[in-house]
Write a structure and sequence with these properties.
The protein is about 35% helix and about 20% strand. The protein is built from three helices and five strands, in the order E-E-E-H-H-E-H-E. Bound molecules: L-tyrosinamide (TYC). L-tyrosinamide binds next to strand 3, helix 1 and helix 2.
């Protein structure tokens, strides 16, 4: 007959998920606390377009229609707001989508030879 020199190591208990704190009560039972912290919504980013003295109004309207999916009326209102206030918000998106919109606008402006500028910034 064969005997083991020592007991095989007991499997270590699985670690509890960090989001669900585990508390042991007086009786030694394991109690899962109710989770009070909710998952935060992702940070959103607004694409802000800047005014300049050279880019034609019509070009800005077409860019806003094309890349920000606005109808002509809305695109015209946004363009005029930028023209009058110096800047304006074209749309609000997740970080990656906002960054892509900025690149698309910059590339369209570069190709057309206009100094149109836009950027994305976190929404407060
Ligand atoms: N100010 C420009 C003009 O008078 C028009 C314009 C509007 C340019 C919005 C840029 O983001 C802009 N031709």
């Amino acid at each position: 007959m064969k005997f083991m020199a020592s007991k095989p190591p007991a499997p270590s208990p699985a670690a509890p998920p960090k989001t669900q704190p585990v508390v042991e009560d007086d009786g030694g039972s394991v109690v899962l606390e109710r989770r009070t912290e909710k998952t935060k919504p992702p940070q959103m980013y607004q694409v802000v377009m800047l005014n300049d003295d050279y880019t034609p109004m019509e070009f800005v309207v077409v860019v806003i229609q094309e890349f920000f999916n606005k109808d002509r009326e809305t695109a015209t209102q946004i363009m005029l707001k930028i023209h009058l206030d110096g800047k304006g918000i074209c749309g609000v998106y997740s970080k990656d989508v906002a960054a892509t919109k900025v690149e698309q606008v910059q590339e369209a402006a570069r190709q057309a030879g206009h100094p149109l500028q836009c950027m994305c910034e976190p929404v407060e």
